[in-house]
Amino acid sequence: MRFVDEYRDPAAAAAYADALRRITTRPWTIMEVCGGQTHAIVKFGVDELLPPGVTLVHGPGCPVCVTPLELIEKAIDLASRPNVTFCSFGDMLRVPGQSRDLLSVKAAGGDVRIVYSPLDALAIARRAPDREVVFFAVGFETTAPANAMAVAQAAEAGVSNFSILVSHVLVPPAMTAILSSPAARVQGFLAAGHVCTIMGVKEYEPLAATHHVPIVVTGFEPIDILQGVYMCVKQLEEGRAEVENQYARVVRRAGNRSAQQLIREVFRIVPRKWRGVGEIPASGLGLQPRYAAFDAEQRFGVADRVVDEPGECISGRIMQGLAKPPDCPAFGTVCTPEHPLGATMVSTEGACAAYYRYRRVRVPAGNAASPTR
Amino acid sequence: MCLAVPGRLLDIDGADPLLRAGRVDFAGIVKHVNLSYVPEAKVGDFVLVHVGFAISTVDEAEAGKVFSYLREMGDLAELSTDDSP
């Protein structure tokens, strides 16, 4: 596949790994923000090509993983109602709630459907005017234009039986929270390329300047990630803290303006709870008051429900770069993709699921804190 | 979740900007994709698609720079080796 295969070329990977070894004089800790990057790093063994001391820690950029238990419980509540058709991306269905998940609601007879796009959920609503169709609008900035479009089209066409359960989060406030933590050990970031495709790179400049961290907007294939790490380490070695764009083939400096325009039309910035991290101010999107009619929380009266997070899972520490999956005593024993304790094991992009799938055999228990190689 | 896949735009339909759409070929798998956010996209362009929406066009000149950067770095490395005491 063009624009994919060439970025997996082993010779180019080896050349970037060599170049990186030549410029690295000290240990550095770099966080890749996006779960898609985490998955690629673990799958292709990108971390095993890095010089000793250059460590990648895995960031909070998996929306499935950071959706708080409270919203999962609201989703389960709505999906269980007999008049509701509940539509979701597939990876939300197995995220454990307090006692069950959306898939078990479906197994018990609930009308829960997996869709590819929010527009598919809107099409279902149009075909079934006697059903209340709810879409679980989960995601980062990348997915916001699609969800904004579904709401805008529903409003334009007067579809009154469609609503969205919004769990939208924003990347820069999470990066600020990670850098502001007293336990912070992240010295540079690979920013999430597809988030920046929508939002551009400018909002990262104050972050780089204030916290003196290099931020390299990076793609998702192994060569992209190796070049991103190279650019980040080069900045660190030279004492620079700038925003650079490795992924310029799709990320423009200003982002996608028409997408930003519709996001602003439909959504506003709100505080959001992050699973395992807690509430972060101005870190999410909620519907604008003029689109309140499409807000499932208001339509079904579940907005005020509060659910405390479970304490047994260390996913919050993993997503802040403070621990790696094998550090968890439950990893691969009581917590597996079949019986996940937390969302980082559920989502295919969760760090725990990536380690379970690709590294389970090679990481000996009790020796997990050392770099995996 | 933020997975986005590049594919080649085969055709474009729909005059309403909110409903502009087209068929995109992902190495043999063809899907109908919303094009509202890529008004600049032309038939034959590669577009990056996420949950049924094209969110960017692929800049072919930029796409090669990952490899030209590598070549430049190789040259620089040789120079700095020659210059080193």
Main traits of this protein?
heterodimer, A: 373 residues, alpha/beta, Rossmann fold, six-stranded mixed sheet, five-stranded parallel sheet, 38% helix, globular, disordered C terminus, B: 85 residues, alpha+beta, SH3 type barrels, five-stranded antiparallel sheet, 2 helices, 5 strands, 27% helix
What's this entry about, in short?
Chain A is an alpha/beta fold.
Describe the structure.
- The complex is a heterodimer of chains A (373) and B (85).
- Chain A is of the alpha/beta class.
- Chain A has one domain (1-359): HypD, alpha/beta domain 2 (Rossmann fold, 3-Layer(aba) Sandwich).
- Chain A contains 16 helices and eleven strands.
- Chain A has helices at residues 10-23, 35-44, 63-66, 69-79, 102-107, 118-127, 144-157, 171-180, 193-199, 205-211, 222-238, 257-266, 296-299, 315-319, 343-346, 351-359; strands at residues 28-34, 54-61, 84-88, 111-114, 132-139, 162-169, 188-192, 215-218, 243-245, 267-274, 278-287.
- Chain A has a six-stranded mixed beta sheet, with helices on both faces. Chain A has a five-stranded parallel beta sheet with strand order 2-1-7-8-9.
- Chain A starts with 9 loop residues before the first helix and ends in a 14-residue tail after the last helix.
- Chain B contains two helices and five strands, in the order βββββαα.
- Chain B has a single domain (5-83), classed as SH3 type barrels.
- Helix content of chain B is 27%, strand content 36%.
- Chain B has helices at residues 60-63, 65-83; strands spanning 5-13, 21-26, 29-34, 46-50, 53-57.
- A five-stranded antiparallel beta sheet of chain B has the order 3-2-1-4-5, with no helix packed on it.
- The longest helix of chain B is centred in the C-terminal third of the chain and has 19 residues, at 65-83.
- By secondary structure, chain B is α+β, with helices and mostly antiparallel strands.
- The interface between A and B is large, with 57 and 38 residues.
